[in-house]
Amino acid sequence: MSLKAIQQVLARLYVDSELRQQFFDNPAEMGQKLGLNAAEIQQLRELRSPQINFFARSLHRKRLNAVRGLLPLTTQGLDSQFSQIFAQYAETYAPSGIKKHHDDAVMFCNFLASQNDLEPPWIGDIANYEKGWLLAAKPGFRGHRCRFRYAIAPFVQSGSQDIQKKSAIAIWVRLSPTAKTRYFYLPWL
Question: Count of CB atoms within 10 A of residue 183's CB?
Fold first, then answer.
């Protein structure tokens, strides 16, 4: 196995707590399942569980703080639940690439929008609103629309949590690559 492949396995151990636990419970079996030979398994085994867990927690905190910075309204809406819900999400997706924090925030918004049991119930709409702005910031962006179940304008404008269950739509448009993004928020009749 190449150094790159070992690094990929190590990266998976850093981001997947269940896989990490399985590996340290039975390194030989899990190492083989991951495509490692005996020497490579021994090499990873020498890192020790506390070292890998420490680094995994550091990566998680870095991701959490980066996403918090990109989603201030979602952070405000979820309040003390943000960290716990992000931890659940982080087990389902590991970002990669050069814009990984941006992509991580977009995927977290998708995760929140797919959850039906969150409190407050309008938090998925707030996440989708912020996702719209993240998408609009990308080079090559042309347009995006999002329909909301709740009229989120009071929260967006002033932080008021007096949000009515009333449909609305938001549209982001950039007419040319150098043009400013235009944004429209409309009640949905």
Answer: 13
3-class state of residue 64 by DSSP: helix
- 18 shares a domain with 56: no
Q: Cα(63)–Cα(67) distance, rounded to whole angstroms?
A: 6
Residue 149 to residue 140: CA distance in whole angstroms: 28
Q: What is the number of structural domains in the chain?
A: 2
pLDDT, position 21: 86
Long-range contacts of 1-4 (CB under 8 A, 24+ apart): 1/35, 1/36, 1/37, 1/40
> Which structural domain, as residue segments, surrounds residue 2?
1-47
Residues 6+ apart with CB under 8 A from 71: 105, 108, 109, 127, 130
Residue 53's pLDDT is: 81
Q: Is the whole model's pTM more than 0.85, yes or no?
A: no
> Are residues 106 and 76 part of one domain?
yes
33 lies in the same domain as 52: no
Q: Are residues 82 and 5 in the same domain?
A: no
Consecutive 10-residue runs of the chain (189 residues): their mean pLDDT? 73 80 87 85 78 84 96 96 94 82 95 92 96 93 94 90 92 92 87
